[in-house]
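The freezer alarm interrupted the setup, so I double-checked each line after restarting. Inputs confirmed:
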Amino acid sequence: MNRSSDRRRFVLVCLLLSFGMLIAAGVGWAFGGFRSLAFHLPFWTSAVGVGAVVLWGRDQLADLFTGRAAAHGAAAVFSAAAAVGIAAMLNAIAASRFDIHWDSTEDKVFTLSEQTHAVLDSLTENAEIVGFFPSDPEATRYNDGLYADHLLTLYRRASNGKIDFEMVDPYLSPRRAQEYGILHEGVAAFKMAGRIERTSSLTEADFTAALLKLSRGETPAVYFLVNHGERSLADPNETGYTSVEVGLMKQNYSVEPLDLRRAPVRVPADAAAVVIAGPREPFLASELNALDQYVDRGGRVMALLDPINEDKLENLRTWLKKRSGADIQNAAVIDSRYNYSADPFFMSAQLEPHHQITATLHQSIRSVPFPLASPVVFEANVDYAPLASSGSEAPQSWIENDLATAPPAYEPGKGDVGGPVLMAAAVEGRGENGARFALFGDSDFASNQLYAYGGDLFLYTVNWLTRQKDLIAIPPRDPTQRVLRRPGSQGERVAFVAIAVFLAPALFSIVGIAVWLWRR
Amino acid sequence: MRRLTGPSLAVCKREIYSYFVSPVAYFTIVPFLLLCGFFFYITFNYLSQRGGSETAATDLMVFAIQTMSVLLTLASPLLTMRSFAEERRAGSMELLATSPIRERDIVLGKFFASWFLVGAMLLATAPYPLFVQRYGNPDVAPILVGYLGLALLGGCLLALGLLISSLSSNQIVAGVSTLGAGLFLWMIQSLPPAAGTATLYGTLREIAVYMSLQQHLTGFSQGVVAVKSLVYYLSFISVCLYLTTVSSASFRWK
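Predicted 3D structure, all chains:
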């Protein structure tokens, strides 16, 4: 009798254990996949349990369900186990195969941009991403790891299975860190077809740029002309262009200086674009000849020319007019309506909403500061796309030809032309090979001092020039400010404490005391 | 989960009445609101003094919701510990078992009554977002989503408490066990770190973290509604209530 009872108990335990292990295997499969130990371990344990029942407990199996209490008990146990099992499987499926989120924040803080979606859709190969972050909550970069995990989850979800990622602690797995060439924590490594791209900046733009760079397998080169007094990529001061260099490198460009006065006098074959940023000294004929050859090959030129008192750029202006159709005049654009400075020549250029370069930018910023800008003038037969103009008409805005006299005044009789005045434009399809030009009457807007305002306009223009359309649409994140101010007066502060801390508890206490008294 | 029908509605009303005529509701709600208000006030003071933070209003509400979740974990055992344990101790379980009301209706009635009380507790915290609205410009939708998460978390804790109460005839034991289980489901997300998510321990840790009630609230508190979190909370409540029904039904045939 006792042996039979023991065996019945053994069968029940085996069955329940097997059932539980089967559920665990399902969950292990959902989280770790078929090949994971988290699936195999419980699955085979479950199989062993069922095998044991079949071998030693067949007769006792029927006994389990006979007798009123036994039948009720067994039914209760199995229905409870089934409920837990169904819930576990539902959760496993929801977590691993049905990962949908609704982001209720106004700025869509937890949603990837359309541009990133476009890049993910265009991926032709699978990518693996490994985030190397400390898993110790006390570590300085622990929170960065949480953020990277969150961001990478969004990428995985949006990639339709093309992206998978894991988080690795470089201190606990130094071999993995070595495999990916990781020297310090806080780095995400993107791997595609054997190529590895690393980024330590944890923004969507950086992650997307890393994927883009891997999928293209190349680094477009942007050359900046030097030796004519241009903006310097090495100058970290307000007037320098170090921010431009960093911005371009973040978008996968290699940035190189180009001295056409030295042999070989030609634009390198790998040039994706040539930038002439604020020159002040004249160009040699040989240099213009090299640029000519580059444009004939379908080159991309970005010219940014400021007004200068002693103009030595006549030959460059003539060359630009000949090749692009644009005359960047040595005059100043005045717009008193959009002048937010004491300097009469300062103005904010209004962006055009319809061009590919400025359309996305226009959604977040309407204007870019142009501290001292030249007009860009086209002849009637030239096909061009305006990018930025002064926002007013004469007498508020005009082209001032007299740069020496301040304050400037609108004098139509002396050759001043009324606004609105074009200050930046794009031209494409020039020549047989479809050269592109971006022409700006100002180079200050992208300088270190104003990069926060005009940097995107510069980067988007380079992207357009080099046909990197998928990078153009990255909308700059400008989350709404959600500051808190303190209650002003002493009375307000007292009211705050009284209502926030004491009002509701006091009301419930009064009701409680009233009920207690009533009950007594 | 089923709709509240006639018999369960009657049980629910009776339970709500018994909550409010006994000191339980007041001894739970008043300390909960006092502590919530106190933490809200000191955090408001701290964040508004910093001056420069561009996300202070958001941070404040995220913190307030997280604080309320911890306090709910501590308060919920007080609401559920006597639900079935007291019936067993007082001998009224026999009456219920022999009454025409089904176990399912009893369980649902008791659950919705305690959930109503949690709803009242959360509603009493409404001045916090109103204050944030007055002294800042919060994003309203994530706050509502945060409260939805809190309500669901409260539902889970109550369902768990009812299940444990149905297994015990001593309400102190039921209360302490519920508190322990609630804290366990909170702390489980703090398991020691794994070397990587692809290892066995990493996978098991991922599963354990997924089971943490508070971990799912993080998304809600930030304004993100994840289907997996909804599935987790609702399935957790459903399973606990079903097991409570099975447990209380066992009284008939034991």
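Quick read of the result. The longest strand of chain B covers residues 224-226.
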